[in-house]
Specification:
single chain; mainly alpha; two-stranded antiparallel ribbon; 6 helices; 2 strands; about 75% helix
C-alpha cells in the first residue's frame, strides 16, 4: 500500500444551517406524530372500545367483538407501527446529523414512501402538514451546502488521523 496525500480539506465541524433546520424539522415532526398518537388516536380508540359495552350485541360486528374482548391488543397493534417508525426515523436523523450519506438516502426513501402513503390515504389538514414537513426535510438534506458537507464528512471519515488516505495498489 502507498500513502496518498490529503488533497481535500477536512469537513467543517459546523453543520450548514439548512441541514440543522432539516434535522430540527424532522425531530419536531416525529415528536408531533407521537403526540398525536398518544394524546388523540389512542384515547379516541379507547373511548370507542368503552362505548361498545353500551351497544346491543345484535348490532356488533365481528371486529367490534374482537376489540371489546381484546382492547389491549388493539391499542398495542395501533401504537406499534408508529413507535417503530419513530425509532427508525430518530435513528436515521441522528446518523444523518453525524454526516452519514447512507442515512440521508434511507431517510429520503422512507419519507418519500410516507409521502406517497399520506397522499393515498389521508386528505386532511394533518396530511398536508405531514407532507409539507417531510418534503421540507428532504429538500433541506439535498441543498448544495448540505450535500457538500455530507461529502466532506464522508471524505473525513475515510481519511486516517494523519490526514492521509490509504490506497491499495
Amino acid at each position: 500500500m502507498r500513502e496518498v496525500p490529503d488533497i481535500q480539506p477536512a469537513a467543517d465541524e459546523v453543520r450548514p444551517a439548512a441541514l440543522t433546520v432539516a434535522l430540527r424539522v424532522g425531530w419536531a415532526y416525529q415528536v408531533l406524530l407521537l403526540g398525536i398518537l398518544f394524546f388523540y388516536a389512542l384515547p379516541k380508540q379507547q373511548a370507542y372500545i368503552a362505548s361498545l359495552s353500551s351497544k346491543p350485541a345484535q348490532q356488533m360486528t365481528r371486529d367490534d367483538i374482537n376489540m371489546f374482548l381484546h382492547p389491549d391488543a388493539v391499542l398495542i397493534g395501533l401504537a406499534t407501527p408508529y413507535v417503530l417508525m419513530f425509532g427508525l426515523s430518530a435513528w436515521l436523523l441522528h446518523k444523518a446529523g453525524q454526516g452519514r450519506i447512507w442515512a440521508r438516502n434511507v431517510l429520503t426513501a422512507l419519507f418519500g414512501f410516507r409521502i406517497l402513503v399520506g397522499l393515498a390515504v389521508n386528505q386532511n389538514a394533518l396530511s398536508f402538514l405531514d407532507i409539507t414537513a417531510q418534503v421540507a426535510v428532504i429538500v433541506l438534506l439535498f441543498v448544495p451546502a448540505s450535500r457538500a458537507w455530507f461529502h466532506a464528512k464522508k471524505f473525513e471519515m475515510s481519511v486516517g488521523s494523519e490526514g492521509r488516505r490509504r490506497v491499495d495498489g
